[in-house]
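Example 3.2
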Amino acid sequence: MDGELTPELCDQLEAHLARCGACRRLVDLEVAFRETYVERLRPDPAPEPVRERVATLLRGLGEGRRAGRGWRRVERLAVCAGAVLLLVVGLGAGIALQSYTGTRTSLAELADAAVEQHQKLVRDLLPPDIKDVSPKVAEEWFKKRLAFNVSLPELKTERLHFLGGRISHLREIEVAALEYRVDGNNVSLFIIPEEAYRQLRLNDKPRFKVVSHRGYDVVIWRSQGAGYTLVSEIGDRACLMCHAPEEKLEPLPRPSAHL
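Structure, written as tokens:
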């Protein structure tokens, strides 16, 4: 927190966060973003010689010297120097803020769009373009219609069933939208172009980035020249889509600074 709460309110907040996992994850995510983007991208102060010169000139303006031709020139220089200093600081802050909010907004928009599409797929509001086929047949179908690498996971367990897929859009990004059922639960997998994934500007580690959004777990990662977004309500069990039950899985992290 920023220290704006009274000790009593802080105690109440901590007590609530200790009981509410969803709120705790949101707070962790907010703190992580501040540490990674706000602090790291805070603009550097103007060089000391520049600040001293501007301060000296501005102090002279208040000494009430007789305004002559030479002094008016000094005044103009002081005003110009002050304006340049403010411009440099403002541009630096603007670039830092744009970088921070841009990354956060892009990731939030992707998660929101993926959850919305998942809900429509589950409710049959978006009918599949292809169904009742094996993942390999579906993979070839998508490769003929999308201009990026589409690789569907094999069905490695009877607990996993491929229902179908369609060409869809997440925030104007053309994607392969795939429907699965894992242990009777609906799971959606969206394969996006690698370029669209790169625009999220995510760190390489951890490999899997997790966002909790509207009650769903959204897992985002990159593999084989494409980005993957997995949406479910069953946490780690959704990983059966890409891993056999006996495989040792990389633990899914909590929302962290790597987002």
